[in-house]
Design goal:
Structural class: mainly alpha
Oligomer: single chain
Low-confidence stretches: none
Helix content: 40-55%
Largest sheet: none
Shape: elongated
Mean pLDDT: 81
Order of helices and strands: HHH
Number of strands: 0
Number of domains: 1
Length: 86
């Protein structure tokens, strides 16, 4: 993305920078959970591309749906596969 595009978007959406920071923090947290260090010098697009590639790889290696904090099974409990009781 060009700098002029970002400047334009920030003028249209004053919360854009905060949203971008939150998105970056979320990506860093998800990578950190996998044992991957992210540095401030790493660009946002690079971090996003890395996370996307890792998640695609994980989906190929283990195609079972991943259980998240908001996913529930048919009985309303979370999957025992991840050690969370039903």
């Amino acid at each position: 993305m060009t700098d002029s595009f970002e400047e334009e978007q920030r003028l249209l959406d004053p919360h854009r920078l905060d949203e971008q920071r939150r998105a970056r923090e979320e990506m860093e947290d998800r990578l950190r959970d996998r044992g991957i260090t992210v540095y401030p010098r790493d660009g946002d697009e690079e971090v996003g591309d890395l996370l996307e590639a890792i998640e695609r790889f994980e989906a190929l290696v283990d195609p079972r749906p991943q259980v998240t904090g908001t996913t529930t099974g048919p009985t309303g409990g979370r999957g025992a596969r991840n050690g969370v009781p039903q």
